[in-house]
């Protein structure tokens, strides 16, 4: 569990020519030749947990976490009860860092002026992800965000979870073993793929590439809308990423 007082750190690495400032042979001209890139910590480093007193005021016994994690379709009713608690709402929404909140607000205003700020993607953590992926460059983050919205519209992402039915799921699992299974020690959902057991010929006999891609898109939407909130409530801290485990046994040498 992260300490709420712990501050997010940035790691600067160099690409190309250049040496560390700590090196005895450091020269400013050499340092400036390299391209500096900030590696930002995982978004969960911004966890800020409610106090113990706030937790005591909420009855955890009323929640069935096992049901919430194993059957996300029944998670909605439980989530509505959870949102009535201010402390649990803080867990689901995650903590806001002041310096990040300021640039997120600037990013939000920039998108608003473009007329491209859907309510579904208007939350703090979604906008912060795009800023972090483009090293807090507003222009680059905006271009990436607009391309993302365009892709969602063209691919019909919002309609896929409602309309798309992957009837061949059980057959696909036989030739492409994969799926979510439990959580790691940080409370993040674990996704496993046994790629060494994949039979592509059999896979293409039971489904198509287009349907398989739509299936993965629908699963990602479930992760964002159901799995992360369920895991956040169960772990009593904000969860915004998952642990992916690829088992390569049987793939041979590369």
TrEMBL record:
Q: Which domain of life is it from?
A: Eukaryota
Give any Pfam family that matches.
CRAL_TRIO_N
Chief location of this protein within or outside the cell: membrane
Where does the CRAL/TRIO N-terminal domain lie? Answer: 123-148
Of the GO CC terms on this record, one is: endomembrane system
Q: Which InterPro entries match?
A: CRAL-TRIO_dom_sf (IPR036865), CRAL/TRIO_N_dom (IPR011074), CRAL/TRIO_N_dom_sf (IPR036273), PI/PC_transfer (IPR051026)
Q: How does it sit in the membrane?
A: Peripheral membrane protein
| Localization, UniProt | Endomembrane system
What protein name does the entry list?
CRAL/TRIO N-terminal domain-containing protein
Q: What is the native source organism of this protein?
A: Nyssa sinensis
